[in-house]
Amino acid sequence: MTNVAVVGAQWGDEGKGKIVDWLSVRADVVVRFQGGHNAGHTLVVDGRVYKLSLLPSGVVRPGKLSVIGNGVVIDPWALLAEIEELRRLGVSVTSENLRIAENAPLILPLHGELDRARERVRAERPGGTGRIGTTGRGIGPAYEDKVARRAIRLCDLADRNLLIAKIDELLLHHNALRRGLGIPEVDGERLLAELEALAPKILPFAEPVWLRLAELRRAGRRILFEGAQGAMLDVDHGTYPFVTSSNTLAAQAALGAGVGPDTVGYVLGICKAYTTRVGAGPFPTELCDDTGRLLGERGHEFGTVTGRPRRCGWFDAVLVRQAVKLGGITGLALTKLDVLDGFERIKVCTAYCLNGQLLHHLPAAMAAQARVEPVYEELEGWRESTRGARSFAELPAAAVKYVKRLEELVECPVALLSTSPDRDDTVLVHDPFAD
User: Fold this and answer.
1) Is there a contact between 27 and 226 (Cβ–Cβ < 8 Å)?
2) Burial of 397 (0-12, 13-18, 19+ CB in 10 A)
């Protein structure tokens, strides 16, 4: 039996939470390996809705170990609030079923303040140019501090003298930035007091999770790696600079959890049967018309974390094929097929046109990304409902043809189909854990 990594194959919001929850029944351990509380996963279990940001989706399943790896940047206050909310809903979250990498960097209040201040400055430029469209939760600034070797990490909370020295080093940088942005400087003593009050609440979850995962692997336990965001938001391979601040591809699962690359196993890419995006940046198949609005209404396309409406468009096979190649995706989970019910004709982007030339990939240059025009293929739609289908036999013939055509275009087989938010409304074509 193999381990499985679940990653987004578009711009995030593809429905990873439901798929991870569905797969977690077969897993022993669920690991978050990148991102922060800018990610949002919505689960529907026995009619109850759970909205998670930092916690792995497997946390709602009894008997599963949830792990937050070193590749995640953690807002400890947001994490504790999320834990308390789950407890209120009857989900037990303790140091027995949740472990956090002791070397994970922390998101502090100053990171969110810097994030929002920068976006305000960008918005004040003519036409609001330069806005990234971040969630304003401090993810980017926290990763900046990690790379610059000034981050405060979870393990630092256990050593007061070290913590004082690290706060001084951190504020040497941040207070200079804040002066330039015209926002008040950070009070180091207050920050120290806040972190000291926090320490006894979060340190019991800390451990060298790389060691725990190595032991679990030796014992034959199955590990499910849960990615956040999507391939086209990857800091290296996405639509830069309109990306997140971490690597979102499956290769990051090894680094962000502290395991060897051979541990990752089967890579399941999640994509919608159409395309959505939150925030700024290029979107070749975006529909700024009634069809786009209809997709948004039917798909309830609002960000789990921000509540912002998602931009909607036709399925972009060029992007997903690119994600498959970049991410080493073994199979796809196609979600929200039911949103396309009732469309007489459905379009799929099969290539781009740029300056009169045909392209079969998205170029890296920002200006070129903004100018590419989609080349569409039209497919027959279906009148019948696919909502709630749990086998191919329950799907209309045209819906099956649509799925098969997408497989051809993205050069990757569909392993799972999701036909509603309910975890059981899933068509299993191939069990990723069976490889």
Assistant:
1) no
2) exposed
How far is 188 from 168, CA to CA, in rounded Å?
7
Give the active site residue among 13, 145, 338, 425.
13
Using the predicted structure, report yes or no on whether residue 1 has a pLDDT greater than 60: no
Amino acid at 231: A
Catalytic residue list contains 115: no
Residues 396, 384: Cα–Cα separation, whole Å: 6
Query: 13 an active-site residue?
Result: yes
Contact 351, 362 (CB under 8 A): no
The angle at the Cα of 31, spanning 407 to 82, to the nearest 5 degrees, equals 110
Number of other CB atoms surrounding residue 253 within 10 Å: 30
Which of the following is catalytic: 41, 111, 174, 237? 41
Q: Is the bond preceding 413 in cis, omega lying within 30 degrees of 0? A: no
Q: What gap in Å lies between CA 174 and CA 323, rounded to an integer?
A: 36
Give the closest residue to 32 by CA, choosing from 158, 209, 198. 209
Band of pLDDT at residue 50, cut at 50, 70 and 90: confident
Whether pTM exceeds 0.90 = yes
Residue in this structure with the two tokens 């965001």, named with its chain if needed: 229
